[in-house]
Amino acid sequence: MGKKGKLPVKGVGEIWAESKSENLSLRLTPTGKRLARKRAEQEGLSLAEVVELYGRGSISVEQVEGEKTITPQFVINSLKTFTKEHLAEFISIASKLLVGNYIEIQEQVEYSIAELIKKEVDSRYGKDIAAFASDVALPIERVNALLNGEYPSDLDLISIAAFLTKNDGSTYTLEEVITIRKSCFGNGHTSGEELRP
Predict the structure, then answer these.
(1) 10, 61, 135, 150: which could form a disulfide with 145 (CB 3.0–4.6 Å)?
(2) Average pLDDT in the 117-136 region?
(3) What CATH code would you report for 107-185?
(4) Residue 50: which of 66, 31, 26 has the closest Cα?
(5) Residue 11: other Cβ atoms inside 10 A
(6) pLDDT over 70 percentage in the chain
(7) For residue 113, which of 37, 174, 52, 27 has the smallest C-alpha distance?
(8) What are the φ and ψ backbone dihedral angles of 162, each rounded to 5 degrees?
(9) Domain limits of the chain?
(10) pTM, to two decimals
């Protein structure tokens, strides 16, 4: 690859004015290749220049000891280096991994499915059940049945989940409304197979 304003001279290297070096073939993973090119572009160099500079010791590269296996003891020992906020986040994530989203969802299960629908119809639809039924693509009779506390089918939950909003303004996930159904009805009755959170 020639430099701007300079004609290449056969047999003479462009950077160090020496005979051109031998061809070198490297095998990298696709990710390694992509990252190497990106890093070279950031430095304004070609990959060949990066390898040449590395070979001459002009570029320092962190020593790689190979892939490390993270052990529980390593994690425990590193905890003291984190802030209290990070530790609280770790605890939250660890508890969710241990018991699923049960703790978080239990705090939110202050409403039944019927109460959530009623709250939504009252606040966002001006008590217009027909408008809510139209948006969730359920017959108005079915929405009325749900408002009266009837067991919500899987199809009902799939239809209404994205339309039910939490106090913080976010919408419920399908997993959350399934958990709410389970907390209100237990395993309940269902025709066919029931969705599981």
Answers:
(1) 150
(2) 89
(3) 1.10.260
(4) 26
(5) 8
(6) 69
(7) 174
(8) -70, -10
(9) 27-62, 72-99, 107-185
(10) 0.42
